[in-house]
Amino acid sequence: MRGVEYRGLSRIEGPVVITERSKNVGFSEVVAVYDREGARRLGRVVDMSENWTAIQIFGSNTGLSAEDSRVEFLGRPMELRVGPGLLGRIFNGLGEPIDGYGEIFSSQRMDVNGLPINPYARTYPRDFIQTGISAIDGMNTLIRGQKLPIFSGNGLPHNKLAAQIVRQAKIRNADESFVVVFCAMGVKYDVARFFLDDFEKTGVLANVVVFLSLADAPSLERLVAPKCALTAAEYLAYEKNMHVLVVMTDMTNYCEALREVSSIRGEVPSRKGYPGYLYSDLASLYERAGKISGSTGSITQIPILTMPNDDISHPIPDLSGYITEGQIVLDRELTQRGVYPPVSGLPSLSRLMKDGIGEGMTREDHKDVSSQLFAAYSKVKSIRNLASIIGEEELSEGDKRYLTFGEKFEQIFLTQGEFEDRSIERTLDLGWQVLSVLPRDELLRIKKEYIEKYLDPILQKTGETPDSVPGGTA
Question: For this UniProt entry, which segments traverse the membrane (predicted)?
Answer without folding.
Answer: none
